[in-house]
Amino acid sequence: MTTIQKTHLYNFTLAELKDWIVAECGEKPYRAVQLFEWMYQKRVTSFEEMTNLPKQLREELSQRAVLITAREAVRQDSKVDPTSKFLLAWPDDVTVETVLMRHSYGNSVCVSSQVGCKMGCTFCASTLGGMIRQMRAGEMVEQLLYSQRLLDDVGERVSSIVLMGSGEPMDNYDEVMRFIEIVSSEHGLHIGQRHITISTVGLVPGIRRLADEGRQVTLAVSLHAPNDELRGAMMPVNKAYPIAKLMDACHYYNEKTGKRISFEYALVGGQNDSLECAKELAALIRGLPCHVNLIPVNYVPERNYSRTDRKQIYAFWHALQDAGINATIRREMGHDIAAACGQLRAQHMNRRAQ
Ligand code: SAH
Description:
Elements: E1 7-8, H1 14-25, H2 30-42, H3 55-64, E2 65-66, E3 71-77, E4 83-89, E5 95-103, E6 106-110, E7 114-116, E8 131-134, H4 137-152, E9 158-163, H5 173-184, E10 196-200, H6 204-213, E11 218-222, H7 228-234, H8 237-240, H9 243-257, E12 261-267, H10 275-285, E13 290-296, H11 310-322, E14 327-329, H12 343-353
Parallel strand pairs: 1-2, 6-9, 9-10, 10-11, 11-12, 12-13, 13-14
Antiparallel strand pairs: 3-4, 4-5, 5-6, 7-8
Helix pairs in contact: 1-2, 4-5, 6-9, 10-11
The structure holds S-adenosyl-L-homocysteine.
The site of S-adenosyl-L-homocysteine has 18 residues, from strand 10 and strand 12.
């Protein structure tokens, strides 16, 4: 018996869903708008419930298409703040993490763009087992909807998205952009593009492409060190795209879009946290409209490094501010539940291997 691969409807933008429903179901395009609204605004989980679609179409859809493909493998709720982390599993047995962070100013969801990662940053848990496969747009949408459905119970919505889970979004560019188009659609979740942040390890072609396409999304660049020697030791990607090339691309991005860049800087004890580093960093980014996000590094058991102590984190922050650089220290959310990317998945895989 041959099994028919069902079409995953969350992979489609509204325009693609219209094409599909016309070509595959012989329906009028407005049916796609109705379907899209059921999927994203009413957020039902079965075709049965889509009561303004003809019964015959609902039956055809259940035979040919699917909505939900992921299931929850693990859930962890933080005891220290309103943060929940989910490990979602797909039928091919891959897992990724997604995190819901509830702030006073809104709800933010962290989405994974790849299963694992091939970038090899020395402090990161996501890259430990390499890259397994890309996440499709619909799988990223499902991560988001997972949190949105929980928020539905309390009448709240997801207000911002950060692509800061496992994976490198610029290494899965087309699917990430399709995901953004879907979730920002006014017929769908209608999350404004400026409330969506793409965090990149520094893939220069992706940054330039984003600049040329003039999208409204927010760009975050993982800088983590102010010179090639240090950055190269922490991030293998620095060989392909050294700091000078990366900074050129950042200036290009800012000139093209007029948007400020957010630089992420994970402070690792004794590696990149000296006051000399702070000064070097300030000199590197001076003149570029930007913001530095200082992240106290999250401990990863497989990695051998220490955290910068509180006093030094503040000293580094002050040094940047004294040099006229806009900087904040990232508030840690859910540190008791391994909320840094890749940690829950790594634990889950280790447990299964035992
Ligand atoms: N591939 C993207 C998204 C990665 S996750 C990127 O590199 O930007 C988002 C951020 O978390 C990145 O800045 C990443 O460098 C950082 N990060 C990874 N592991 C970390 C850890 N153990 N502690 C603190 N930050 C970490």
